Amino acid sequence: MSEGQQIKENTQQNEILIGMPKSGNPWKKLSTKSSTRTKRFHKVSWEEKQKQRQQKKELQDYLKEYKAEKEKQIQEEKLRKKNKKKQDELNKYKTADLQIIKESKNIKKWTKKARKTLVKLPAEIFETLLEKQRRR
Question: Where is region (Disordered) located (predicted)?
Answer without folding.
Answer: 1-52
